[in-house]
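The records we work with from here on pair a chain with its fold. The integers have meaning only within a learned vocabulary of local backbone shapes. A complete example follows; check for yourself that the lines match position by position.

:::
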Amino acid sequence: MSKEIIGIGSKTKCPILVAGEYQQWKRRMIRFLDLIDKNLMNSIHEGPLRITVTIPETVETVDSPAMPTYQVLKQHNKYTPA
């Protein structure tokens, strides 16, 4: 495959990795991902967004001790289409 064809970019097709040309491919891939969404590289570098739910503080009762406010990961079955 010629270098001219490999170098041609597209907004809908990602660049092809060719043996020995990783650095060029890396730059083209970053540009390609930036065209899709500016926040995509942030997500790749920082990892996925982890949604948490705050559990409110509970007071002490006869049956249970007091619990401070804490956060847990949101369960997948608690997500809504909105």
In short: The longest helix spans residues 22-36. Residues 8 and 15 are 8 Å apart (CA to CA). The longest strand covers residues 52-55. The radius of gyration is 23 Å.
